[in-house]
């Protein structure tokens, strides 16, 4: 109820403002430009409560943060670029449109069906920045000028990412979604509901299944989905991975470690630093979803 009230408030302020001389950009109920960021607000069951569109001008009107482009997996050919990035802290963005209850998590959805989850804690620990400009240009204009990958309309960067935890061989990942066209905001507690292993409450901390669960949240969820949760870039569901983990555990582990050793043109990135314990944790975790 509260959330709905906040949104309706935000939207009605928009309507009032639109009728005034001095227009201040506000959230809109419809898309006006391809660069509008669509924001979905979901309840704990994953149902959409509301969706709004934020224009580039609206985002630029929020308090801005700056950082320098560095160690971004989207620009591997520019490792020492000193491009200046400017954008909005994800937490600032959430508070601007969701003032009644900012205790939410976010998921960034990308044009190519890749997605990145941002648990509440990660938002507070790392302050992901939704980048609006690079060296004063839109990401698209900058990419054209520099003949490099075009992350338009939006991508995420950090001022300084230091992992907060490590699970076996997986450090907390700096999520770097690019070509973000949509944000979902949802209660933090329901972010990973559909990929939580059965009987997880009975498992002791540090059990392989729970470790695999935490690694999957950092990694696999970006391209593989369980229902509405996770990216669909891989076109292979959680259920499919579960069946592979159960029927061919060695193939599963080898694939996760180094897909190209099995399929020379594999598109999935390798995880060469995963040791046997890490691969086993993932295999055990995915097996729990097999029939
Ligand atoms: C960046 C995207 C991406 C990520 C992240 C990713 N995958 Fe994949 N995965 C793919 C794609 C794409 C395929 C389809 C095969 C290919 O690579 O061409 C695939 C295929 C697979 C397969 C092969 C299924 C089969 O039918 O043979 C397995 C197993 C798998 N992934 C497991 C995982 C696990 C476990 C993780 C997390 C540790 C993970 N993937 C993370 C993109 C990804």
What does this structure look like?
The chain has 291 residues and is of the alpha+beta class. Helices cover 30% and strands 19% of the residues. It folds into two domains: 1-189, Sulfite Oxidase, Chain A, domain 2 (Alpha-Beta Complex), CATH 3.90.420; 192-291, Cupredoxins -  blue copper proteins (Immunoglobulin-like, Sandwich), CATH 2.60.40.420. It is built from nine helices and eleven strands. The protein is globular and about 60 Å long. The two termini are 38 Å apart. The model is unreliable at 1-21 (pLDDT under 50). The strands form three sheets. A five-stranded mixed β-sheet has the order 2-1-11-5-6. The longest helix is centred in the first third of the chain and has 17 residues, at 2-18. The chain binds heme C (HEC). The site of heme C (HEC) has 21 residues, from helix 7 and helix 8.
The unique ligands bound to this protein are: heme C
**Helix and strand element order:** HEEHEEHEEHEHEEEEHHHH
Overall tally of structural domains: 2
- The whole-angstrom Rg is 20 Å
> Mind telling me the CATH class of the largest domain?
Alpha Beta
Q: What sort of overall outline do the alpha carbons produce when their principal axes are compared?
A: globular
Instruction: Summarize the main sheet.
Output: 5 strands, mixed
> Would you count the extended β strands for me?
11
The separation of the N and C termini measures 38 Å
CATH architecture term of the largest domain: Alpha-Beta Complex
Give the DSSP E fraction (strand runs of 2 or more residues): 15-25%
Helix content: 25-40%
Protein name: Mono/diheme cytochrome c family protein
InterPro entries: Cyt_c-like_dom, Cyt_c-like_dom_sf
Keywords: Heme, Iron, Metal-binding
Domain Cytochrome c: 201-290
